[in-house]
Backbone:
């Protein structure tokens, strides 16, 4: 069992929790993920590591309440325990030799972009952090973000905060203004990553994307997290996000396939979430 | 006077039409009467060939003799001397290609039902004997075992019996490896695996769950920082293989590993489990492959209400699965499309499987494996309407241990290389099971676990 040390509700559906897991904290690197299970009947879900404190022995994650598992997790408070917490899994993000990069995050992806931006920034890389939110109500963690980069650019889909702009627009503006990035690191909803890659491909800027497909074991056994990379010569190769990723060359990812695979249990998730919510309501009564 | 009946006592089982709708154990086990009758078929050969056929050399005639004398606990102790998982082996070993294949009674009629007797003895013990195994005198040596599947559990058990301080590291949240995530409840109830694990715990073996060795701690760190003098790697098979045909990544195409893990480990078939599985009631499933794993996936699908095909490129004779599994599958209504091979999987406009093109095959000359090579019959392709495809084609070794352990030699296929004592290219690091051989059987993994334990004991007791 793993203890929740702190819990911060960032927005009504976005939550940060810090979990006591000293061995994982000791090894965690930006870009890696964990797998957790809330209780005995719980499913195993992968969540990217948001932050870690090696001295305190804690690992932080940020999750969005979307299904039964995250709904159950939402009802765990500081001092409560979750059943399983495994990691660090996947490979750490590597951007060797880069002097100037853009780190692009959308929605909950911003939370994941944070450790990568922070690590690069601390190692002396010029980091432009470009983030996008739906509206002003879901803008989070700005103080932390600003400390983790050289320049910070934010936009909202509806213009209710700072300015109305998609991350693709913010990124292209910087490129056109002569940013001259060595590489772009991008994390967020699949559609956003796909369109960021469309922009960067135009300017031929190498782009690393952090994929988060559905997983079961997360250790290289079940093959659920497979995705297709298309090579320039027309051939394609199957990769497993849990052991080969989660970072991949964004220009090679077969986005349409990954988007479809990501929706495989969409209907189940909605139904389960509803059931769990009803159950919780009953218990409260 | 031995019982000279030419036929084995049949195994009492749930009726096919009943069991293909539930996940309860199919084979119910011999009654005492049946066990006594079957035990008397053993001729107690002076030179028992059956023992050589067993990868862990269970003293078969001796345990059967104890059954005849109605000393069932004595029989259990005989088996337990060499096998740490009798209740498991009695259920899942391919006896027909091991001990029973060598049984002299099999020359004319059926061989003695050694597996069924082993199961009877193990179940008798589990039901009647509650005392925990004695905790051996500690010998002061610390050993780490990576993986809690059959290889790891056997190695841990053998070392614990000799007084070693053993810690088993498991990546998943439950101990048992393939015994819990792969083999279904109806073939091996999980309570039996739990009992074996509890037995090891009583002997002082420690189990650490959720530990992905190579990520959270490396093998070098286990030895240098955590004080383990030797390590046994029984991390099992790894990534599932696919055919690399179009449509393999559509929604509704599973690897057998994923499909079985969702069902067995995550209990997706049970009310209240949070892990999803696509609804299969009234749907059509094609399982590609002919091994035990394919049979398990097919029989699970059937129990979830699907119409099920096994699609296998060779013939019925060549199916690598245990006879009993194939028989059970046929009885349960699974349709065998042998001498067929998938060419392409088709999806609907939202990316779900709707059908599969298959081609007929014929058998040509024997290939390197000694089996006749399947050849495509030109122009024989046709459409098979299916909603779900499960690929049960085997696995390739997990790259995690290799990539995080400098100096660990692996072969071309990625399997860890070991010497005749079970040791890898790294001093003090031993390995066995699927991590070495690629996908094989429970009992072979157990044999490898024994070898590793022996090697470790010889090295550390020097």
Residues:
């Amino acid at each position: 069992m793993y203890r929740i040390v702190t819990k911060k509700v960032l927005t009504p559906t976005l939550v940060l929790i810090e979990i006591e897991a000293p061995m994982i904290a000791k090894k965690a690197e930006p870009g890696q993920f964990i797998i957790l299970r809330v209780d005995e009947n719980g499913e195993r879900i992968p969540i990217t590591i948001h932050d870690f404190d090696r001295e305190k022995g804690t690992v932080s994650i940020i999750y969005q309440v979307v299904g039964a598992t995250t709904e159950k997790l939402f009802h765990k408070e500081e001092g409560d325990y979750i059943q399983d917490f495994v990691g660090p899994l996947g490979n750490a993000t590597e951007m060797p030799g880069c002097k100037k990069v853009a780190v692009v995050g959308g929605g909950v992806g911003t939370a994941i972009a944070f450790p990568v931006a922070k690590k690069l920034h601390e190692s002396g890389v010029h980091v432009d952090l470009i983030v996008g939110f739906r509206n002003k109500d879901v803008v989070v963690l700005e103080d932390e973000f600003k400390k983790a980069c050289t320049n910070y650019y934010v936009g909202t889909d509806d213009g209710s905060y700072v300015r109305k702009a998609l991350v693709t627009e913010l990124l292209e503006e910087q490129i056109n203004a002569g940013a001259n990035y060595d590489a772009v690191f991008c994390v967020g909803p699949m559609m956003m990553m796909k369109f960021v890659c469309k922009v960067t491909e135009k300017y031929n800027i190498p782009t690393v994307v952090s994929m988060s497909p559905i997983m079961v074991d997360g250790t290289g056994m079940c093959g659920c997290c497979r995705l297709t990379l298309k090579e320039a010569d027309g051939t394609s190769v199957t990769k497993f996000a849990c052991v080969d990723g989660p970072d991949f060359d964004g220009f090679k990812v077969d986005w349409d396939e990954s988007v479809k695979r990501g929706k495989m249990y969409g209907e189940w998730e909605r139904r389960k979430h509803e059931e769990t919510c009803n159950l919780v309501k009953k218990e409260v009564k | 006077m031995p019982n000279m009946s030419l036929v084995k006592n049949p195994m009492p089982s749930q009726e096919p039409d009943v069991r293909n709708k539930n996940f309860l154990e199919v084979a119910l086990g011999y009654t005492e009467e049946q066990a006594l009758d079957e035990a008397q078929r053993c001729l107690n050969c002076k030179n028992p060939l059956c023992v050589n056929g067993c990868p862990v050399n269970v003293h078969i005639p001796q345990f059967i003799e104890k059954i005849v004398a109605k000393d069932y606990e004595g029989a259990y102790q005989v088996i337990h001397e060499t096998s740490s998982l009798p209740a498991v082996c009695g259920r899942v070993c391919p006896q027909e290609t091991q001990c029973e294949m060598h049984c002299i009674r099999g020359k004319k009629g059926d061989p003695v039902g050694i597996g069924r007797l082993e199961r009877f003895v193990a179940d008798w013990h589990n039901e009647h004997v509650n005392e925990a195994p004695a905790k051996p005198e500690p010998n002061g040596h610390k050993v780490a075992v990576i993986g809690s599947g059959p290889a790891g559990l056997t190695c841990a058990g053998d070392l614990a019996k000799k007084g070693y301080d053993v810690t088993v590291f498991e990546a998943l949240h439950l101990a048992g490896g393939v015994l819990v995530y792969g083999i279904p409840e109806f073939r091996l109830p999980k309570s039996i695996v739990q009992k074996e694990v509890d037995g090891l715990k009583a002997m002082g073996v420690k189990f650490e769950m959720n530990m992905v060795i190579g990520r959270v701690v490396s093998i070098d760190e286990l030895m240098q920082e955590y004080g383990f003098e030797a390590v046994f790697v029984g991390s099992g098979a790894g990534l599932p293989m696919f055919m690399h045909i179009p449509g393999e990544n559509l929604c509704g195409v599973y690897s057998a590993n994923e499909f079985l893990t969702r069902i067995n480990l995550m209990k997706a078939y049970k009310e209240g489990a949070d892990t999803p599985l696509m609804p299969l009631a009234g749907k059509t499933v094609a399982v590609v492959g002919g091994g035990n794993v394919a049979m398990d996936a097919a029989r699970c699908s059937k129990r979830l209400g699907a119409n099920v095909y096994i699609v296998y490129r060779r013939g019925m004779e060549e199916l690598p699965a245990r006879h009993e599994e194939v028989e059970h599958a046929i009885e349960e209504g699974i349709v065998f499309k042998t001498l067929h091979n998938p060419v392409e999987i088709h999806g609907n406009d939202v990316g779900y499987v709707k059908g599969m093109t298959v081609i007929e095959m014929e058998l040509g000359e024997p290939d390197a494996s000694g089996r006749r090579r399947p050849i495509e019959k030109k122009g024989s392709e046709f459409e098979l309407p299916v909603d779900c495809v499960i690929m049960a084609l085997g696995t390739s070794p997990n790259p995690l241990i290799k990539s995080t352990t400098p100096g660990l030699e692996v072969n071309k296929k990625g399997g860890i290389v070991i010497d005749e004592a079970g040791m890898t290219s790294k001093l003090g690091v031993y390995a066995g099971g699927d991590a070495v051989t690629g996908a094989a059987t429970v009992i072979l993994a157990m044999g490898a676990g024994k070898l590793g334990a022996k090697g470790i004991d010889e090295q550390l007791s020097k």
Notes: The two ends of chain A are 28 Å apart (CA to CA). Residues 2-89 of chain A form a domain with the Elongation Factor Tu (Ef-tu); domain 3 fold (CATH 2.40.30.10). The first helix of chain A runs from residue 22 to 27.
